[in-house]
Amino acid sequence: MVVVEEEEEEKEAAAEKDKASPSVHVNTAMSESPDARSLLSASSQLNLMEMDAIDDKEFDIPQVDTPPTLESILNELEDEEEPFVLEDTCMLNTDNMDAHSCDTSSLASSDSGDPAHLKRKRRTVDLNATVHGSVLRHSLLKGISAQIVSAADKVDAGLPTAITVSGVIAVGTSHGLALVFDTNQALRLCLGTKATGAEFGAVSALSINHDCSRLLCGFAKGQITMWDLASGKLLRTITDAHPPGTAILHVKFTDDPTLAVCNDSGGSVFELAFRRVMGMRSCDSRCLFSGSKGEVCCIEPLRAPPDFKDHPITQYSLLAMASLTKILVIGLKPSLKVWMTFPYSKYTGSSGLLRSAREQLGVQCLAQGHFATGHVVAKDRTAHLASDPASVPQLAWQFVPVQKMVNPILAFCKGDTVHFLLVKKEETGTIHVIKQKQLHLSCDIISLSWINSRTLVLVDSHEKLQVVDRPSQEVLETLDLEQVQLVYNSRHFKSLATGGNVSQALALVGEKACYQSVSSYAGQIVYLGTKSAHIMALRNWRERIDCLLKQEHFVEALSLAWSFHEGTAKAVVGLFGDPLKRKGVVGDKMVEILFQFAEHALKKCPDQGKIQVMEQHFHDVVPVLVDYCLLLKRADLIFNQLYAQLVENMVAKGVFLESLESYIVADRLCHLTTPIMRDLLAHYHGNGMMDSLERCIVHLDVTSLDIQQVVQVCWENQLYDAMIYVFNSGMNDYITPMEKLFAVIGPQLRAGRSLKDEEVVMGNKLLVYISCCLAGRAYPLGDIPEDLVVQVKYQVFEFLIRLHSADSLEEEEEVFPFIRTLLHFDTREFLNVLAMTFEDFKNDKQALEYQQRIVDILLQVMVDNPDFTPSQVGGLFTFLARQLAKPDNTLFVNRKLFDQVLEFLCCPDDDSRHTERQQVLLELLQVGGVVQFNEGRLLALAEKAKFYQICEFLYEKKHLYDRIIDCYLRDPLRKGEIFSYIHNLLSMPGYSPEEKQTVRDKVLQHIKELVTLDPSKSADLVVFHFAKEVQQIICELQDDQLLFQFLSCLLEPREGHHSGTILPQEQDLHELLLDLLCRFGPNQLLSFLQTSQHYRLEEAIQITQKYHRNEATAYLLEKKGDVHGAFTVLLETLKENLSLLTAESDRGADGGEGRQDEEERDSESKLTGVKDSLNDIIVLCHRNSDSLYQQQREVVVSALWFPLLETMMASQKLVKGLNDEHTFEVLKELTMKVLNCMSTFISLPAIIQRILKDPVYGKGKLAEIQGLILGMLDTFNYEQTLLETTTSLLNHDLHWSLAHLRAAVTRGLHPRQDYCNICLQQYKRRQDSAEEIIVFSCGHLYHHQCLQQKDSGWGFTSELQQRWSCYKCSSSQGGRGVPSTEPKRGRSTSLAQTRVTSVSHDAGAEAHRKKVFVDATLDLQQEQSWDQLRCLYRGPSRLSILSELSHCHSSDKTGLLFPAQPGTDHFQLKLSPPPLLEE
């Protein structure tokens, strides 16, 4: 936030002010009068003639010669493309924050001990960051302020109320005086007296004409006075220009000194024409706009600066008016003419809704002559101007350079959006009013002023002043005007001096009106406070930079200066329009700032403390210095003056040298001076920054390097990239670096030792370097000079094919050491490098000779050399095969060498690296090596070496696909892939039927092997391709276990395309599988029987009986319908298990304790067997008891349940005699389970009778069966209690529902009024007519006929069952209330909707009216009441909860459990009220 500066600072700013600036200011102190300039010359502040400084594309708008008609505009499509660009879009990003508004700490304050400060962060220059600095100079007019206060105190002038500025400054007061000051703030005139002030009231408006000769004063009680500013004489007092009893809100001179306009608190606008006839001064008034048609609260005539007095637009004397609802632009000359209207609430775009003055504007002077509508060419599809009714409309004109011409623009707003209209006259005489881009702000604007042709100054309702650049819509600066204490014009808008007779709307706007407190002239704006006056002017560019430098914000100052340099800054004052001159002046200023910044940084550096803090301090400074020196293309500053300054501090020197790296690597700095290069080497070497040093060297111009020193440092520190770069660029030597690198890795590889990591890196660099040299590219970046490319290539080849290295003894060294070294380092990559190089050898004879020579050397070195692995040798021949397969091949290779390699790779005696040798040979064949071999010999060698993939490759070429199956079966690594191969071959097109048949025969021949390998995949293969050969395949599979696995997979259910495949003799296959399941998979037997449908029942029963699979047999018998047979089989199983259990108990009683644990485990397993058998038989009994009819049930149920019960009781008695308590208790529990299950189907008395008749219990005592009977009685008691409780709850719920329903149904209805709500007549219209009346529960009453006419009936068509809805209530709910036909929660209509019939009887003199209840249905209100009633009882009923619990507890019964949902227990009740008769 920039605050008002003190007087001393203002004096400094004035002293330092740029003399080249055209800005003129009002002197801020009385002592400065000798240097004062006249405000009349200040129009040069506009800079309008600096055409080059303004981007003409900004207003590049196409011309419209013929204005569109209203009809054509109204018929245009809404989404049509805009026909012109409103603004120049090539502006800086406005999203960046104004850097001046950020709190930036002093550069010296970084030593805080915070660890975050200790990190070495490098500050870089963001060229997109927007810094504006302090744009406005805010000065207090101390002389004027002091005299305003003094006049109020000493002569009772009153408080200031209005201000205006032109060549002089005039201030109006609340006691009717006008104080006139010159540019030195000296009081020149005091106009008016307190007596006139008492008569006229406060000064409410002021205006000075263009030559500063006349002053107009408007008063709160409606009078207007004109004064001569030269003599101080009162020239006119105008009292009849407008209706009496209204205050003057605005009075304004036009460019014509004889013409002014005024606006009163009645919202009317009047033209004042001054006359002087025969020495008599007079004033003629005419109404331009009547307040009765909409109140105007702001007017602004277009006044041209002296430079534009002859502008073609000025002849029309334009006047803009802002009412509470719209903006109006009219021309006063040559005759009154309406140019444009712009409604706030709705802007219609193209036509501007131009209408005649008589219709739209309320212009009253009908006899004044011709009215014509002007042509408006404006397009705007944007949002409406609708805003807060308390917002103050604002208007401001400004001449702006557009397309090499200067034209006026009207800025206007009401609320938070500023609109712009460009007014332009064509050579043809057509006037265009063109809509420009809007400016959106997030504040309510109360003052709007232009300060130059590109910049606006706004004040919002919080008294915050904002400087806005119009083209970019960027807020440049924000100031707080709270201390100014702006004067508001609310009293005049409310016309308090004349009794307050104004509209509420105008009074509301007046709350924030401060029109008379703000006056702009020649690039300066004056604001009037209650005790002071303030002036705002744009600072010139030097002043803005110096403001930042005073605050020691050097980075921001440089950023702002750079924006001046590049021409991207906003609100610029005092710079040349010529770019070259501008850059020269600003560049010199930036150099000055850079030196100041460096000096400041050295002074503010912490003298002691952590070294990291000092480093961080310079990391924030040095990159900024270097950046701007490079941007200014002044590298000499870096190397000479700045480096000389920084070298005094060792930390600063180190940071400087380190910061150079990023600029060198980015190629922004390619040349260093010798001293700096020497220091750079020493610093990087001393600090171990060798990687950084290498990166720098390879980007620097080699002429700036000391080659001997650099090579020595690089070699000592293994900076091979830098060393290669120096040799190549500095000496054009491409061979010496290779020799040096070979000297390091060659001896290690020849000795067979493994390389260290750094040596591997070196070897890789060597390969890349050779590749670059042969391809014509420089290493590590760039290209070899074109004249050296071929020479370098030949030099490298000569080097590679050397017989011996230069520094070795020929006897000790093997021949061709360099090629040998590269092959040992990485054979494949070296061959790849050669392959890429050979691609370019087409027409170069010398290169082709080198190619042949290198190939010969490779063969000589690698073939028959045990040092190389099969993979390496194979790689060589793969490389050769690729080269030989090329169509333009010129290489020659002896074919015997290929045979030799083949023998080597297929050696059967060498089992090592079998897979590797096979893979190498396969790769060799795939790239075309097969043409070099005898195929027959190759196949024989491959079979001998068990290279099955080679065999497959060769068989594939010969179409011997059946042999390939043998390859897969014999290859242990690829056996599993045989199924995919067979399936693909038999499925895919491209193979002949004969080829497929040979494969099928081969598969059938090896089917047993395939099934053994994977039964599941074999079964899939059979289903897809061998369905007809199933029987043959089964015969082939002799092993029953294997056959079982195969059939299990073959017959399992399948999904997808082959799910319905029918196999021949499918029943036989399923029965065969059933037989095998009985033997090998009894656990899967039952699930197979349940899922399969393809076996015959009788045969299946025989098979299961044969293997004594009783559970399966029982299932089949039940499926057949023989329930007794199934029951008998299961009962037999149960008896067997029980006999085993009793036998075990018998042995347990006799045996000793030593085997106790083992016997317990055995006993538990037998008990489990008994439980499982019993569960199976109970489930069978349940299933078949449920499905029987009542007549059969007693007979069949007895035959099922009683034998089961007898079996359990007999075993229980038997075990009891053996004294095995545990087993006895378990059997007793199981017997009770049987009894509980029986009781569902057989009555308890029948069960007890049967038990008592049983011979087992008949002879014993009652105590023996006491437990059984008591358990049964407990069950009976539980069920009886459950039934009684359920019945009670059901009855209670039913009673509750019926009671509430009856109460709702029988409620009486009370009409709200005694007339029909449709026809509004009494419900009894005529005594002698029979008329039906319908009353609704909402209280509305209707005639039957009226409802019929309104079609409020719905439902059934018959007369008696006709249903009605209340017409009034239905309409208020958004329509005719036709109810939905969808049922609401299963409830039928109920509650009383009463239709009353009025019947007239002829029997007696009196007509007896009777109400007859005819029908009972629901209307909308009753439905809502019923819904509320139902909601009182939340959640499910108690009956539904019990139902759910009973379902959950009966777990023995099969079936799905459905949870009871709330609201499902409805009782469908159709109720009618009793026939009640009422007099």
Summarize the structure in words.
Residues 1-64, 69-121, 346-385, 1355-1360, 1374-1416 and 1450-1479 have low confidence and may be disordered. Helices cover 44% and strands 13% of the residues. It has 51 helices and 34 strands. Strands 18, 19, 20, 21 and 22 form a 5-stranded antiparallel beta sheet that branches. It is an alpha+beta fold and 1479 residues long. Helix 31 (978-987) runs parallel beside helix 34 and helix 42 (1156-1186) runs antiparallel to helix 43. It is flat and about 150 Å long.
Quick description:
This protein has 1479 residues and is of the alpha+beta class. The protein is 44% helix and 13% strand. The strands form nine sheets. Strands 18, 19, 20, 21 and 22 form a five-stranded antiparallel beta sheet that branches. It has a four-stranded antiparallel beta sheet with strand order 1-29-28-27. A four-stranded antiparallel beta sheet has the order 2-3-4-5, with helices on one face.
State the main characteristics.
1479 residues, alpha+beta, disordered N terminus, 5-stranded antiparallel beta sheet, 51 helices, 4-stranded antiparallel beta sheet
Write the layout of secondary structure elements.
Layout: H1 7-15, H2 70-74, H3 115-118, E1 136-140, H4 142-154, E2 160-165, E3 169-173, E4 178-181, E5 187-191, H5 194-200, E6 203-208, E7 214-219, E8 224-228, E9 234-238, E10 248-253, E11 259-264, E12 269-277, E13 280-289, E14 296-301, E15 318-323, E16 326-331, E17 337-343, H6 357-360, E18 394-402, E19 405-413, E20 417-425, E21 431-435, E22 439-440, E23 445-452, E24 455-460, E25 464-469, E26 474-480, H7 490-493, H8 504-510, E27 518-521, E28 524-528, E29 533-538, H9 541-550, H10 554-566, H11 579-604, H12 611-619, H13 622-631, H14 635-646, H15 650-665, H16 674-686, H17 690-697, H18 707-716, H19 720-731, H20 736-750, H21 757-775, H22 789-800, H23 817-838, H24 845-862, H25 870-884, H26 895-905, H27 914-926, H28 935-944, H29 948-958, H30 961-970, H31 978-987, H32 993-1005, H33 1007-1013, H34 1015-1025, H35 1030-1036, H36 1040-1050, H37 1066-1080, H38 1085-1091, H39 1097-1106, H40 1110-1120, H41 1123-1150, H42 1156-1186, H43 1190-1216, H44 1221-1238, H45 1244-1253, H46 1255-1258, H47 1263-1305, E30 1331-1335, E31 1341-1343, H48 1344-1350, E32 1353-1355, ...
Antiparallel strand pairs: 1-29, 2-3, 3-4, 4-5, 6-7, 7-8, 8-9, 10-11, 11-12, 12-13, 14-15, 15-16, 16-17, 18-19, 19-20, 20-21, 20-22, 23-24, 24-25, 25-26, 27-28, 28-29, 30-31, 30-34, 32-33
Helix pairs in contact: 9-10, 10-11, 11-13, 11-14, 12-15, 13-14, 13-15, 18-19, 20-21, 20-23, 21-22, 21-23, 22-24, 23-25, 24-25, 25-26, 25-27, 28-29, 29-30, 31-34, 33-34, 34-36, 36-37, 37-39, 39-40, 40-41, 41-42, 41-43, 42-43, 42-44, 43-44, 44-47
